[in-house]
């Protein structure tokens, strides 16, 4: 799985709405890709903060902002092995 694919599925992954196979693939990606691991944790924490404040929907602007930051970070980093 490539980082771009991981990022596409990340929201559903955190929602827990992915099927088991895809979920396993994303988990596997996290074991070797440090960038996505950080992104996953950050996004998870952000979502938790929103949930604690009883805001269940992430604003699109924040979602886009997070996504841009992630893509920039991935592009600027050294190439990582892709499975
Ligand atoms: Zn990755």
Give an overview of the whole structure.
It is a single chain. The protein has about 80 residues and is an all-alpha fold. The protein has one domain (about 5-75). The protein contains 4 helices and no strands. About 15% of the residues are buried. The structure holds zinc ion (ZN). Zinc ion binds near residues 3, 6, 29, 33 and 36.
Tertiary shape = globular
- Count every beta strand, where a strand is a DSSP E run of 2 or more residues: 0
Give the SSE order as H and E letters: HHHH
Q: Major sheet: size, sense and barrel closure?
A: none
Terminus-to-terminus distance: 5 Å
Short description:
By secondary structure, the protein is mainly alpha-helical. The chain is built from 4 helices and no strands.
List the helices and strands and how they pair.
Layout: H1 3-15, H2 20-32, H3 34-52, H4 60-76
Helix pairs in contact: 1-3, 2-3, 3-4
This protein binds zinc ion.
Note the main attributes of this structure:
mainly alpha; 75% helix; 83 residues; binds zinc ion; single chain; globular
